[in-house]
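Q: Could you write out the predicted structure for this multi-component system? I'm mainly interested in how the pieces pack against one another.
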Amino acid sequence: MRNAASVMHLDMDAFFSSVEQRDKPSLRGKPVIVGGLGARGVVSTASYEARPFGVGSAMPMHEARRKCPNAAFLAGRFTAYRQASDQVMAILRDLSPAVEAMSLDEAYVDLAQGPPRELDDESLLELAQRVRRDVFDQTGGLTCSVGLGTSKFMAKVASELAKPDGLRLVAPGAEEETIAGLSARAIPGVGPATMERLDRLGVSTVADIRQLSKAELTRALGKAGAEMLHDLARAQDDRPVEAVRETKSISVEDTFEQDLVDVDEIKAVVARHSSLVAARLAKAGLFARTVTLKTRWPDLSGSTRSRTLHGATDSAEQIAAIASGLLDGLDVGGGVRLVGVGVSGLTQIAQEPLFDLDSLSSLKPNKIVEENSGTQRRPRLFLPGADVVHAELGPGWVWGSGLGRVTVRFETAATGPGPVRTFAADDPDLALLD
DNA sequence: TCTGGGGTCCTAGGACCC
DNA sequence: TCTGGGGTCCTAGGACCC
């Protein structure tokens, strides 16, 4: 355990919806919900204005619409989020090479690495305040919360306590008392299922966990979970901040607007997913030994089937053939809600033999090639929130669309709130960006 | 008209090997 | 003529995180 609060955890406040409010001035101060807009979508981020209505992450979108019908519902613009994220991560990497990005909007920094610096509480707080100011200035006004502590766990607890737009340091020595009264759910790794089990043992707070013996914890949670919980409840956490993490798996999955029942249609999806997976393998210079087919059924239950090859591949056709073969062992008669293709067992070299001959029997290269090589013309998709530019009226964003029409609000962060106009979806003057 | 998508780690049983 | 005991790999499922 280090003796300075030199682990920093930075968490952007309501990241996606904040980027939307930054770029769409008319949405500032209003409830904004970013997520999947289809019938089966879920909420990615709800702005702080939407949260009092009971809207939160991972909530089904239809429920969010019911709870907060007047919010702006947006599909999300990942290029914009990526840009803002890059700016934030660059600020952090200026502090130390040891930056572990957990997602676009969250990262740990080990401030004990990097250039020599004072690590007393006051100096660290000053440094963190400067980071928050830099983030705000360089991202055009996005806010974040920062926590400082003697471990990842403490830094994360601190940033959680600081939210939103705050800063907090858990002083060395104050760790155990700081977490004692928190819900056991505050411990990383304790989700709904574990909480339920702890509940049955009469545990509700972190301090309650300390009353249980390791043996009792092991009986309830298994060896690994028990040890983790035993230590974290006592604020013992020596997990290092890891700047580079090896990719262990790559996957692509899709939930359909309506369940698929046609086997050929499902196989076409498998082939498409396989191509995307293969492209990402190739981009990373990796090859995979295990292919996994994931399905979710209409009742929301799911299953996975996997097959491991003797060698490793990055070929879309081979991945598709194996995934397709795994599908053959499944009864899709009742329909399929989701299909996913994943690879794991990643290596940096293709190994001979590429794969077993018997799995070649289900290979249908002609068909797959045909499906992937067609330069299909797809209609332009004007998703709410998307950036557009009009030949005369300039930049704006999609407010809504349907029935061959698109409604655009012409505004940017620079120009401020502007007019709203409706166009035909095929209006040549209107271009979809990205 | 039923909860996404991309990941990570753990567990447990069976096969197989020494 | 009674079935030990590890270790590793593969598969399937579960839990969790953002």
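A: Regarding packing and overall arrangement: DSSP finds 13 helices and 17 strands in chain A.
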